[in-house]
Amino acid sequence: MTGPVLESSLDVNGEGFQANAEYMRAYVERVRDIERKQRETEQAYLPRARQAGKLLPRERLAFLLDPGTPFFELNSIAGYGMYDDQDGSTSGGNLITGIGYVSGRRCLVVVWNYAIKGGTITPVNVKKLLRLQEIAFRTRLPIVQLHESGGGDLSAKSMATDPWGPATFTEGGRVYCQLAQLSARGIPQITVAHGNATAGGAYQVALSDYIVLVQEKTQLFLAGPPLLKAGTGEEATAEELGGAEMHATVAGTGEYLAADDRDGIRIAREIVAQLPLDPLLTDVEPVEPPRYDSEELLGIYPEDRKKPVMAEDIIARLVDGSRFLAFKPEIDPGTVCGHARIGGKRVGILSNNGPITPQAANKAAQFIQLCDQSYTPLLFLQNTTGFMVGTEVERRGQVKHSAKLIQAVANARGPKLTILVGNAYGAGNYAMASRALDPEFVLAWPTARQALMGGAQAAKVMRIVTEGKWARKGIKPDKEQKKKLDDTTGMIEFGLEVISESLYCSARLMDDGIIDPRDTRIVVDFLLETVLEAGLRKPRETSHGVQRL
Ligand code: COA
Fold this sequence. Notes:
The protein is α/β, with parallel strands linked by helices. The protein has 20 helices and 15 strands. A hairpin with an 8-residue loop joins β9 and β10 (about 335-340).
C-alpha cells in the first residue's frame, strides 16, 4: 500500500460535473465516430473480399489475437482530415496497429488494411509504421504483421498532394532500414503475406524473420505483370512471377506455406508460440481498486478551460485504493508529485494544478531523481499552460530551474508514460514529457490541447509586436491598417486553436491515440506492464539480423 487515501472534493452531483461529463462524452463520441467511419469503409469491401476468398483486415486481426484478451489499438485516427480524407472514412494510415496477445505472448501487431485505399503506402502509413517500430525498439516486443498492400500510393489524387515527395521517400526507406535493425536487435518479426506485396511492399515482407505464404494469394515481386511488360516486354502471370508456390518451392522467400488466410494466421500463432514467454513481473502488490468510480473521470475537465481542474481528483480515480503519498505537498501545490500504485505496480506521478513556478520545477526535478534512483516508472498527467512568466519568477531563476526540469525528464532512465489531460502548452508541454521528451507512450484525453501557446496569447503577442513596430517607425495606423491587424490577430488565434485541438494533433501522431478518460486506469495499467516487462526482456542481438539463405 502506498500513502494515505486521497479525499476528492469533486461534487459529482453538481451542475458543473454534469456539464463537463456531457461535453466529454460528446467529444469521446467524435473520436468513436471517426473510428466507426473507418470500419464502415472496411465493411463496404466485404463482398469483394468474400469473392476473392479473403478475410477482412479486422477479421484477420480477430483470428490472430488470443480470444478474450485486450488489444490496445495505437494511433487509431492517424491521418484524420489529412490529404484526401474528409471525415475519417479513409483515416488510419491504411493500417491497424496495436499491442495484443498472440499465443499468450504480448506482441506488437500490424494489420495492413487493404480495404482502405488498397492498403497502400502513404505519408501517414509511413509515419504510423515508424512509430510502431520506435515502440518495438523501446518495448522489445515481437512484431506480428498480417500484410497485404498495393504498395506506394500512386493515385492521381495523392500525386496532387505530393505524397511521394523526397521526405516520404526517405522516411519510407527508413522503415526498411529499421526492419533490418530490429532483427539484428533480436526482435523477431513474423509476417503472413496474405496478398499483394509489390516493390516496397515486397521488402516489407522479405525483411521479416519469418514469412508465411498463402497459396494462390501471395503475390510477392519487385515488379508486377503490368510493370514487367512495360519495362522489359516479358509477359508473366502474377502467380508465375511471385506466387506462394514459387516462393516456397523455388525462390525460398518464405518458410511456411498456408492453405488460406486463416491457416496463415494459425501458422503465425504457432511461430509466436515457440518464442520465449513474457517475463514475469515480481514487484507487484495485490490490487486495491480506487475508492472512486472511474466513470467520474468524465466530469472533471470543463469546456471552459479557464476553470481550475484539481489533479488530485484525477489521481484519486486512477490509483490503487486512491492512495497517494504526496511529495512536498506544502511546497507549491500547483505542481503535484507523489508515489502510488496502479494495478499493484509502483509509479511516480507528476501533474499540474496550474503553471509551473521555479520552486515547482525544482520539486518536480528532485522527485524525478528519486524515481530514477529507485527505478520507479513515471506517469505524467499533463495539464499546464506552461512555465510561469514575469519579473518576479525570472529573478528567482525561472529559466535555469525550468531547464533543470527538462534535463531531469529527458535523462530519467526509468519508463515514462504521459497522459495529456488538458492544457499542454509551451515549454511546459515539453517538461511534462510530451512526445518531444520521448516517453514510451503518450495518450491524450479528447480535451488535450498541444501548442507553443494558447491562440489568444499568441495573437496578443503579435499585436504588441506590430504596434511596437509602428511606434518605432512613427507610423500612425489608419482605419484600414487597424482593421488588417484585427483580422491578422483573429487569424492567428483561430489558427492556433485549430492546430492545437486533440483530433488535429492525434491525426498527426503527436500522441499514440485519444482515450476515453474512463479507460485511463486500464490503459495505464496495461502500458505500465508493457514498459516494465521491456526492462526484463533479453533479446539476443546479432550484427546483421537473420538473413534468408
Ligand atoms: N496506388 C494507389 N491506389 C492503389 C494502388 C496503388 N499502388 N494499388 C491499389 N490501389 C487502390 C485501387 O485503385 C482501389 O481503389 P478503390 O477502392 O478506390 O477502387 C483499391 O486500392 C483496391 O485495388 P483493386 O485493384 O481494386 O483491388 P484488387 O484486389 O483487385 O487488386 C492489387 C489489388 C494491389 C493487386 C492491384 O490494385 C494492383 O496491382 N495495384 C498496383 C500494385 C503495384 O504495382 N504497386 C507498386 C507501387 S510502387
